[in-house]
Write a structure and sequence with these properties.
Helix content of chain B: 25-40%
Strand order of the largest sheet of chain B: 6-5-13-11-12-10-9
Strand order of the largest sheet of chain A: 1-2
Oligomer: heterodimer
Largest sheet of chain B: 7 strands, mixed
Chain lengths: ~500, ~375
């Protein structure tokens, strides 16, 4: 079920809120767990069993790790738990990819291909699997004790707002909230605001941006021109940001309505001036997950096996960074999708991080700041081409047209098919919204509420509050119009 | 300050809950419900699905369709959505069903678009079957002394590609129609009348297709008629085709056609149409034989249309047709002693029983281009 669907907004949500707030506090988690399972089953009832298996794997693995006194025993159960978690992911997400590539390879030697039935990707499997692994690591590292209450653990894994596409909250952050939550009108209404703004990001910004991006990406290459190719990827870059950050806002907002506080997942990633900075601002819950559970363990284990100063003529610390980053971003790309395009996307990011670490970062810092932004956006757009394309070949064809090879001569009148009052204004809002512009505007407005004159202060507060109220309700109404009229596609990150 | 924040928090919560509860209560108590058929969208609205515990997977999708179709604010939301898309984004509000081209030309989406772009095509086997079927019909009718002619009414995209959006490209390898026509040309028996080149050549005389509908207009229909009747005249010299000088085409502004109506804009996007007046017109509607239409056919009154001309020297015409023949029929009836036109629900069957009864001299099969496959497969729904 999409948060941005009529059924969710106007049927599921009122029912859940009604039952949740009418229930006694000790039953609220049970209500929420039930709601989460129904929510998940709505995307395909058959796949509910996979979520339940994942919950059982993590519940029993967690107990086994938690009960182990000896580190080696705990480690055995941790490894077993991770293998079981990853097995689910590999079976449902990567089987086709592996079989396809094995067939390609064995086909060279004339071996007949292995054919298997199509396996549908269960919604959110990458996210709830990573939450499960995070839980097992938390228990293994003794950051918290194992969860003995099955309902609480099941709720952590399947928590409705973040079940399908995160944020991948850590168990230690959520554990206290699973037992009980604070509710207030202020928190609830801030949840409403966040939820509706997320809805608007998805429906009123990401969807119109997709009009242009999708059109450009479906133009046959023989008709595509260089300016159009750049327009297409620019719109896609903004679309994916608003699509995913919109979902996150909705998840955080919904969480607040239910009394939760989730971690933030985005912090204006497009104002970054380097890839290092980008990964501190983009999909934060995923990047920190990879840092804590992959990058750092690899770096730690590699450092123990390499000499302290130099190895093969390279400084050991640089080599360790190179190895850990390569593996982390190879897997980060693969996590996003079972296709070579995602692997290349991950490798581009890994490569840029390594290059920055090896010295480019320092050089860049000496440059004028706008140049650093241009550098960042330029290489980011190139990586998004791989993310958006269906195949490596398609990505290279698209890139070659972006750089003027084999592109069609450009006619200005063609632009009117893509850029009009609507798309230009949405693009402008999207650009401004991806910077701190609206935050600063809001600070200026809020500054007026600090006036020393009570009359001005009160008046400003009331005007701002009424304005916000009218704005939020209008945005909800316009979003509803678009949801009814459009076929709103699922969130891009739903397929990961 | 905190008191003010709390008050506004309560107000927002109140408004939000009221807003999401209205559709919820409407679904429960049915204060307002859309009719079962949406005339604008030309489709039946989704019905509430029944829960089948043995087959739950399709239920959510069916339920979401039902909920969307019966949403309390649906008419207002669709209208507003159309306005926002059309005026603000210059984009079709129903991009899978229609496209807005240059100078506000509207183009049918769905199969028309897919066929034009080569994304939908028919197999060589199906092409062979179509040709074989037309060949068989020709021989059957020839055995009865009847001449059989076939023609396809081209899509607007084929005649006016210059008004298509810039990102709307014709299949470089040709469309399925091209392949069928090529196969028909290889057959020496079928008498095929290719309307497309005639219509393209006639564009200099005026606009031949409607801008707010997928049909040709009366001027386009006249040139289609001319191409057909000139071909028939070779076999029936007695025919006296109407000339352009026989007709006065008056300009007429009327409500927008079907494509404008799909967006709810039929009163905004008007159609600048031609209204033809034939000098000394003699053909008039005749009495129907009362052949029964298929039970599911929505336009039952139009299943059988008969026109007569009081001149028994002229041949009798039997037409298997679709809505495109509505326009040339006006001209056609001036040339035949009797014209019987059967619209058999886009099945384009041989209609042997009716032909046996009518005993025409000529049978004409006129098919809208994307529906060529129906000759052997019939409509999908």
């Amino acid at each position: 079920m999409l948060f941005s669907s009529l059924v969710f907004l106007y049927q599921f949500l009122p029912i859940i809120l009604f039952i949740y707030y009418l229930s006694k506090e000790r039953l609220q988690s049970v209500v929420l767990l039930f709601a989460s399972l129904v929510f998940y089953a709505w995307g395909g009832p058959s796949y509910l069993s996979i979520l339940i298996i994942s919950i059982l794997i993590n519940y029993f693995s967690g107990l086994a790790i938690g009960s182990g006194e000896v580190k080696k025993r705990r480690k055995t159960f941790l490894v077993l738990g991770i293998i079981l978690n990853l097995s689910l992911l590999v079976i449902f997400k990567y089987t086709h990819f592996f079989i396809e590539n094995i067939n390609l390879f064995t086909g060279i030697f004339g071996v007949p291909p292995v054919l298997i039935k199509k396996i549908l990707l269960p919604l959110g499997i990458s996210f709830f699997t990573f939450k499960g692994i995070s839980y097992l690591f938390t228990i293994y590292r003794r950051e918290t004790s194992a969860q003995r209450n099955f309902i609480s653990l099941a709720l952590y894994i399947s928590l409705l707002p973040q079940l399908i596409a995160g944020p991948i909250s850590r168990y230690r952050d959520l554990a206290p909230q699973l037992l009980g939550r604070n509710h207030s009108f202020e928190k609830f209404s801030s949840g409403i605001r966040r939820f509706i703004m997320g809805l608007a990001k998805k429906v009123l910004i990401a969807t119109p941006l997709s009009y242009v991006a999708n059109q450009v990406f479906t133009i046959p290459f023989e008709h595509l021109s260089t300016p159009l190719a750049w327009i297409g990827i620019l719109f896609f870059a903004l679309q994916i940001y608003y699509d995913f950050s919109g979902y996150t806002d909705m998840a955080i907002g919904l969480g607040r309505m239910l009394g939760f506080e989730f971690v933030e997942n985005f912090n204006f990633p497009y104002i970054s001036r380097s890839f290092r900075e980008f990964w501190r601002r983009w999909h934060i819950s995923l990047s920190t997950w990879f840092r804590d559970y992959l990058f750092l363990p690899i770096a730690y284990h590699t450092s123990r096996k390499l000499p302290k100063e130099k190895y093969l003529g390279l400084r050991t610390d640089k080599l360790i960074y190179l190895i850990a980053t390569t593996i982390t971003f190879l897997l980060c790309g693969f996590w996003h999708g079972a296709a070579w395009t995602f692997i290349v996307w991950g490798m581009i990011h890994g490569f840029m991080l390594i290059v920055e670490h090896l010295g480019l970062g320092k050089i860049l810092n000496r440059f004028y700041k706008p140049f650093q932004h241009v550098y960042m956006i330029f290489f980011l757009l190139i990586s998004w081409v791989f993310f958006r394309s269906e195949s490596i070949r398609e990505a290279f064809d698209y890139l070659s047209i972006m750089f003027g090879f084999g592109s069609q001569s450009f006619k200005w009148d063609i632009l009117s098919d893509y850029l009009n009052l609507g798309t230009i204004s949405i693009f402008t809002i999207a650009i401004l919204g991806s910077t701190r512009f609206f935050d600063k505007l809001s600070d200026i407005l809020m500054g007026w509420t600090g006036s020393s004159r009570p009359f001005i202060r009160r008046g400003t507060v009331n005007i701002l509050n009424i304005g916000t109220l009218a704005f939020i309700i209008s945005v909800l109404a316009i979003s509803t119009i678009f949801i009814e009229g459009e076929t709103i596609t699922s969130f891009i990150y739903f397929k990961f | 300050m905190s008191r003010t924040v709390k008050i506004y928090s309560i107000i927002l919560t109140f408004f939000f809950l009221i807003w999401i509860l209205i559709p919820f209560f409407n679904d429960v108590f049915q204060f307002y419900s859309e009719p079962t058929v949406s005339k604008t969208e030309n489709r039946t609205l989704a019905r509430k699905p029944l829960v089948n515990f043995n087959l739950l997977d399709p239920y959510p999708v069916s339920y979401e369709k039902y909920f969307k179709d019966h949403f309390i604010f649906r008419p207002q939301a669709l209208q507003a959505h159309s306005y926002l898309n059309f005026y603000y984004f210059r984009r079709s509000p129903i991009p899978n069903r229609m496209d807005i081209g240059k100078h506000l030309w509207l183009f049918n989406g769905e199969d028309d678009k897919l066929i034009y772009q080569g994304k939908k095509t028919i197999s060589n086997d199906s092409i062979m079957m179509i040709v074989r079927e037309l060949h068989k019909r020709t021989l059957y009718l020839r055995g009865k002394g009847i001449h059989f002619y076939v023609c396809f009414a081209p899509m607007t995209q084929e005649i006016y590609p210059e008004f298509l959006p810039n990102n709307y490209f014709r299949s470089p390898g040709g469309t399925q129609t091209d392949k069928v026509i090529a196969a028909i040309h290889r057959d020496t028996v079928i008498q095929f009348i290719d309307l497309k080149p005639k219509l393209i050549a006639a564009k200099k005389y005026g606009r031949l297709y409607q801008t707010t509908d997928n049909h040709w207009n009366y001027l386009g229909a006249f040139f289609a008629y001319s191409a057909i009747i000139e071909r028939m005249k070779k076999d029936f010299p007695v025919l006296k085709p109407l000339m352009m000088s026989d007709i006065t085409f008056k300009q007429q502004i009327r409500k927008g056609g079907g494509l404008a109506n799909m967006m709810g804009f039929d009163s905004i996007l008007m159609e600048n149409d031609f209204s033809p007046e034939i000098r000394n017109a003699r053909g008039r509607l005749g009495a129907k034989a009362g052949y029964p239409p298929p039970w599911w056919f929505p336009y039952k009154d139009e299943y059988e249309v008969v026109s007569v001309l009081p001149d028994q020297n002229l041949p009798k015409l039997f037409v298997i047709r679709d809505s495109f023949f509505n326009f040339p029929m006006l001209y056609m009836r001036e040339n035949f002693s009797k014209t019987t036109a059967i619209w058999d629900g886009w099945m384009y069957k041989s209609n042997k029983v009716l032909i046996e009864k009518e005993k025409p001299d000529i049978v004409l099969l006129i098919i809208l281009e994307p529906l060529i496959g129906h000759v052997v497969n019939g409509p999908s729904d």
